[in-house]
User: Fold DNA-directed DNA polymerase from Cohnella suwonensis.
Amino acid sequence: MTTLRIDVETFSSVDLKTCGMHRYIEAPDFEILLFAFAYDDGPVWVYDLTAFEDLPAYVMDDLVNPAVIKTAFNAAFERGTIGKHFGIYCDPLQWRCTAAHALTLGLPGYLEGVAEVLQLDAQKDARGKALIKYFSVPCKPTKTNGLRERNYPHHDPEKWELYKAYCQQDVVVEREVAQKLARFPVPAHEWRLWALDQRINDRGVRLDRVLMQAAIDCDAQYETRLVAEAQELTGLENPNSLTQLKAWLSDRGLETPDGLSKEFMPGLLEAAPDDETHRMLEIRQEMGKTSVDKFNAMARSIGGDDRARGLLQYCGANRTWRWAGRLIQVQNLPQNKIEDLALARETLRTGDFDLLEMLFGAPPFVLSQLVRTAFVPSDGRRFIVSDFAAIEARVIAWLADEKWVLDVFKGHGKIYEATAANMFGVPFETIVKGHANYELRARGKVAVLACGFQGGERALEAMDSKKEIDPSEYPRLVQQWRDANPNIRKLWYATENAAVTAVREKTTVKLKHGVQYRYEAGMLFADLPSGRSLAYVNPRLKPDPNFDKEGLVFDGMDQVKKKWMCHRTYGGRLVENLVQAIARDCLAESLGRLDDEGYEVNMHVHDEIVADAEIGTGSVDHVSEIMSRPISWAPGLPLKAAGFECEFYQKD
Assistant:
């Protein structure tokens, strides 16, 4: 099949990074400036659309020809911009994304990083960022540049020629990356999933613009009030200034050598020498709350039809291929605990901020509770929300053949109660409200959430967010959970041994349920039952400084530091990767099934789907039944989904 490789350079007055591609191409001044392409291994051609150069008719035909595969690095951008500029539909089934392919192999998701890691002969032109800034984004009007708001080719013909060469080089590099990665192809079913992901992102989800703007206005009003109170209390011109505030606190006898970040606030509040100092610290604490960050992100990404698009990235967490949140970051939305959400959101929408605060509390708290409710269905439709119950606990029990846990999930499903009964040797029937043993449920729940991936005392402490357990009990709880789940414990060590052996002997080591570790061409693959594989780049064995044994290390992106660096892993972490990857594949299977049944999924958050369904069609029972169906590649895995219908997004 013929491959058409593409790279475009564009202009828009909308900021691509903060607003997303879909808002970017909505701008009235959006246009494609340069269009570079190459067929297979042929020459790379660059067409200057600003000079009214028309693309060849055969290229225009091939953009919609299903017999020609279109490829690009971050193909969502090329798909979107080409579709908008030429007024055509770019069917994602006809496209392949080289960035997605790189992510599936544990590589960076940006072209320059992949080229460097792969040590390619072709490298991305380092001058690109400066050229993009000059030609592709607005500039500030100055007397020097003739008060213009953007730069055109005729403003610097020499730079323009460099920009054309840069566009051409991107096709060269993308092609070399794709050819290098071709040895490890993405399974065909995953390209179909990627195409579905593109359609979900293109569809987007509707936002309540009135609620969103009211939240932003409410926060601004509240902050103005706090600043005024702080100024009156301290006499400072700018109480937001850390330097001024620290000096004021020092004058009142409160030293703050570690700054005023939130982790130090409890101690500072306790040490406050008087009521005024205490109140000022409270104000500082309130002003530091980021209750409207999500609403501001919504305001940046909302389109003219009130929909936000491009909120999910396929394989964004490339260790497991799980989706990552983008723009609004729907993967980490605050939970809602206000009982009457409908009243709270309607009060906010009316702009009666005083009544909102009187009924529900301080604005930062209330606004964070209402973030989810800003996502609303289309007119004449409602949301159907459904998610997998305890999916990771089910998957790890299935992988480990922990029979008693599987039996629980095949029966009543009360895993926290059953775990507590098993850990403490008490009858399951006694762990009910009103019985003295009910307090054991909290211990069972924390243990299930913390211990499955070889977590110890620190993991228990992190999961025990409500501090329901005496810390002195942590060591005993860890041991009790491990004793109650011997097969899961064995799975940690078997998995680590399989991975280490595969690397040491450059071989393949099989585990259970279709999982195996395979060393090939300088890569360690964890083959999954779904038919895809997790990848660990440049795996090697190094002495573990904490244990007297060889440990497994590999290279990869650090999700926090955004750097390519060395990572150390172990049995529990490897099992976590397997479990989360298989849980992701269960969600992927459900997304495909729901699409086949005609449900329009707008977004999905971890193990939950949100479908926008016409009133009178479909049902939550049907959606949950689809998600609960057995999966052919995971025989015996007991899946269970449950959900609800709603007029605005919320946590049930």
About this structure: The two ends are 48 Å apart (CA to CA). The chain has a mean pLDDT of 94. Residues 209-234 form the longest helix (26 residues).
